[in-house]
Each structure stands twice: as C-alpha cells, then as structure tokens.
C-alpha cells in the first residue's frame, strides 16, 4: 500500500512520511510495520502493515478532494444542537479520530462558527488549533501551496472576505 518516502496521513496526528518498512518478531510471529515520522513534530509511529487501513492510515487527498474541503468550510447554514461543551468536545474528537479530512473540515468550520456565538472552552480552543493545523498541512501538500497561503485562505473564508478558494 505504501512505500518508503511516501507521504501519508495518520488520524489525529496528521501528515507524515514513511521512513522505512521493518519486519519485527513479536510473540514468535513475524509482523511488517510502516515506520512513519509525523512532519509536524517528528514523532515516530510504527503501524502494522496488515492493520494500516483499520487504523485509518491513508494517502494525501487529491486536488479535487481539497476543493470539496473548501466547500465544507464555506457552508454557513449549519445548525447546532444545544449541548454541553464536553459532549461537543467528545463528538468533535471522535470525528477527528476518523482520519477523514472532510470530518476534520466540518469540525474546524463548526468550532469557528461556534466561537462567533460564544467563547469556546479551553479544550475546544485547543481542538480548533489542532484541526486547523492538521487541515493546513494536508491542504498545502494537496494544493502544492505554502502553509501560510492555505492558512490565509481559511481565515478569509471565516472572515467572509471571499466566497471560494478553489485555486
């Protein structure tokens, strides 16, 4: 599925590079692992090759999928059900853990919109920063743009300065 040097996304940690593929003996049986270094913080993760899909390891999104992410970010008619911040936090964390960039975009959009209505909890602010960072890193690779450009485009979407950011 992946080769050494490939970029991939690991749920809730973000974009990383497959640095090696190693065979390890565990409890008497041989297992093959992807050794991945997360670009954001240099953390190394060993992912069992035969379990990679189940844990959500996936390729970087396509340019077309990146356009869909921007569409999700631009949706403004989203309804919020009244709930406590900790229940909201758990729901958003579950979405982030799926590894889906579309779920991640929805979490970022919802938190941005929510903070316009009321102050976010400390946990929600941290989650907003995490979602923003994960999204920016992957979109910059998918769109072949600098992270600063992507961040600026996202800010413009939420500040109402532009309608679309497809290119």
Chart the SSEs and their pairings.
Blueprint: E1 7-10, E2 14-26, E3 29-38, E4 44-48, H1 52-55, E5 58-59, H2 63-74, H3 85-97, H4 101-117, H5 122-142, H6 147-158
Antiparallel strand pairs: 1-2, 1-5, 2-3, 3-4
Describe the 3D structure.
It is a single chain. With 167 residues, this protein is an alpha+beta fold. The chain folds into 2 domains: 7-59, Thrombin, subunit H (Beta Barrel), CATH 2.40.10.170; 63-158, CarD-like, C-terminal domain (Methane Monooxygenase Hydroxylase, Chain G, domain 1, Up-down Bundle). It is built from 6 helices and 5 strands; from the N terminus they run E-E-E-E-H-E-H-H-H-H-H. The chain has a 5-stranded antiparallel β-sheet with strand order 4-3-2-1-5. The radius of gyration is 17 Å and the shape is globular. It starts with 6 loop residues before the first strand and ends in a 9-residue tail after the last helix.
Structure at a glance:
The chain is of the alpha+beta class and 167 residues long.
Offer a few descriptive terms.
about 170 residues, alpha+beta, Thrombin, subunit H, Methane Monooxygenase Hydroxylase, Chain G, domain 1, 2 domains, 5-stranded antiparallel beta sheet, 6 helices, 5 strands, globular, disordered C terminus
